[in-house]
């Protein structure tokens, strides 16, 4: 697998926010979102080739139960199930963070953390925007992920206008447990996070969706490795 980085920090987002976790960042993502905060992991070449055994060994250097496999987009890597099996055998709790663009059957993870991308993520570059639009949403794939996993759905919110798109998408997917839906502010910096959080908090109060904090932005201003 092409691995961009492995590091120990706190889970910053979602229902497991605050738990000390080892992060495994898989290199490569086709989406190129406008506000992506891990652009350094977009290309496969941004990662070093590692066997699943090597990755599992590195992860176990920290005395930590929680492992977050993130990216990039880990669900497009065919070796991912093998890595998850090895980490499960070592007693780890595995979260996979994905944009929800690919489904792999028999993935024994504990939490599928799905962050479907909205129109606020379309890249500025026209060529990249076309690729992004074609691959950012697959309702059938989202349905498979939700039907077959313990999941959470996290939406990155840039403005109040995003709410109608979120609700339309949830209707299209159907069968969603709304208690598993979270909204989080689009924010690359601590200042941006603090500015946008009240708007997102109001949307949460209005809809009943949960607010997802972003501890890595709040505490460390999104510094790499946090
Ligand atoms: S899907 Fe995630 S990793 Fe890929 S470009 Fe978008 S924000 Fe970045």
Number of strands: 9
Order of secondary-structure elements: EEEHEHEEHHEHEHEH
Number of helices: 7
Radius of gyration: 17 Å
- List the ions, cofactors and other small molecules found in this model: iron/sulfur cluster
* Structural class computed from helices and strand pairing: alpha/beta
Largest sheet: 9 strands, mixed
State the distance separating the first and last CA atoms: 22 Å
Fraction in beta strands: 15-25%
Shape: globular
Helix content: 25-40%
**Rounded average pLDDT:** 96
Strand numbers in spatial order across the main sheet: 3-1-2-4-5-6-7-8-9
Low-confidence runs: none
Report on the structure:
With 226 residues, the chain is of the alpha/beta class. The chain is built from seven helices and nine strands. Strands 3-1-2-4-5-6-7-8-9 form a nine-stranded mixed β-sheet. β7 (151-157), α5 (162-173) and β8 form a beta-alpha-beta unit. α1 (52-59) packs across α2 (80-89). The radius of gyration is 17 Å and the shape is globular. The relative contact order is 0.15. The model has no long low-confidence stretch (mean pLDDT 96). Iron/sulfur cluster (SF4) binds at residues 29, 31-33, 36, 38, 71-73, 99.
What is the strand and helix layout of this fold?
Blueprint lengths: L1 E9 L9 E7 L21 E2 L2 H8 L6 E5 L9 H10 L3 E6 L12 E4 L11 H10 L3 H10 L2 E7 L4 H12 L7 E5 L4 H18 L2 E2 L3 H6 L6
Parallel strand pairs: 2-4, 4-5, 5-6, 6-7, 7-8, 8-9
Antiparallel strand pairs: 1-2, 1-3
Helix pairs in contact: 1-2
């Amino acid at each position: 697998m092409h691995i961009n980085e492995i590091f120990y920090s706190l889970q910053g987002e979602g229902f497991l926010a605050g738990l000390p976790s080892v992060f495994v960042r898989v290199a490569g993502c086709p989406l190129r979102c406008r506000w992506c905060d891990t652009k350094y992991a977009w290309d496969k070449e941004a990662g070093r080739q590692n066997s699943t055994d090597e990755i599992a060994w590195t992860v176990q250097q920290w005395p930590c139960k929680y492992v977050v496999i993130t990216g990039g987009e880990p669900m497009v890597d065919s070796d991912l199930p093998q890595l998850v099996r090895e980490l499960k055998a070592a007693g780890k709790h595995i979260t996979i963070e994905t944009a929800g663009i690919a489904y792999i059957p028999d993935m024994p993870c504990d939490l599928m953390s799905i962050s479907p991308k909205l129109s606020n993520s379309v890249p500025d570059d026209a060529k990249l925007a076309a690729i992004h639009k074609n691959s950012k949403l697959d309702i059938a794939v989202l349905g498979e992920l939700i039907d077959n996993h313990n999941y959470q759905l996290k939406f990155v919110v840039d403005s109040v206008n995003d709410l109608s798109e979120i609700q339309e998408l949830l209707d299209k997917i159907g069968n969603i447990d709304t208690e598993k839906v979270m909204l989080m502010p689009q924010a690359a910096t601590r200042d941006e996070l603090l500015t946008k959080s009240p708007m997102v908090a109001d949307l949460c109060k209005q809809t009943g969706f949960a607010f997802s904090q972003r501890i890595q932005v709040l505490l460390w201003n999104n510094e790499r490795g946090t």
